[in-house]
Amino acid sequence: MAIFLTKESKVIVQGMTGSEGQKHTKRMLASGTNIVGxxxxxxxxxxxxxxxxxxxxxxxxxxxxxxxxADVTVIFVPEKFTKDAVLEAIDAEIGLAVxxxxxxxxxxxxxxxxxxxxxxxxxxxxxxxxxxxxxxxxSNAGIIPADITKPGRIGLVSKSGTLTYQMMYELxxxxxxxxxxxxxxxxxxxxxxxxxxxxxxxPDTDLIVMIGEIGGDAEERAxxxxxxxxxKPVVGYVAGFxxxxxxxxxxxxxIVSGSSGTAQAKKEALEAAGVxxxxxxxxxxxxxxxxxx
Length: 293
What we know:
Layout: E1 11-14, H1 19-30, E2 35-39, E3 47-50, E4 53-58, H2 61-68, E5 72-75, H3 79-91, E6 96-99, H4 106-118, E7 124-126, E8 132-135, E9 139-142, E10 151-158, H5 161-170, E11 176-181, H6 192-201, E12 207-213, H7 218-229, E13 234-239, H8 263-272, E14 276-278, H9 281-292
Parallel strand pairs: 1-2, 1-5, 2-4, 5-6, 6-7, 10-11, 10-12, 12-13, 13-14
Antiparallel strand pairs: 3-4, 8-9, 8-11
Helix pairs in contact: 3-4, 5-9, 6-7, 7-8
């Protein structure tokens, strides 16, 4: 089992013919991802060679779905074109859109998020500004390194790409059912709560690791959800314990005022919901080990 992405997933790449798209398509293919096509209207009808695998390029997401049965798209499109790429994916009703691009304007994200809702949420959006997701040993949609962990029974959801990789490496001997990098922008598609619900319902996930960041109230809302709905053990980490007050920090653009949005406030909310929270990623991994032991 896995959440959102399995070995059966048929993946297309919007922006596959660009430099980033080509580089990461090659990496995804090497890790076993079933990539069935790319999308670029200007290069429709051509193919791209990836070490002997000829991947076709289609003119639209709808055409790619029609020709290949694709159900996942990974979007490597420059930020000024990202909104249109996501809207196209939503219109084609693809099941999962993984938006890797960073620097997407918040109002663009708000528009495509609202559009997905207006269309009945047939397309799950992950990101933007995220590393994507991986089900180790099955499929990898995004930029997460595939060789730093193995299949196992831990579910990981994280705002931070770098900390996603560190936690995967710290617990590599135990392994993961799925790892989901949701991104740290002010507006994102899939949230901590969405991933927590999916891991709670996944019979092959025994423990959940949740990584948050200072700013906003996403972690506090996740804590409320855990208290009411999650029976599996959850271990947490909040990046930013040493961040100075009132200073904008990191890619999340997180600004902390008083006690609102601080790492300490988030830690307290999570601990009140029964979550064990580490002060460092390594301590968080140690807590996970102790629970699984």
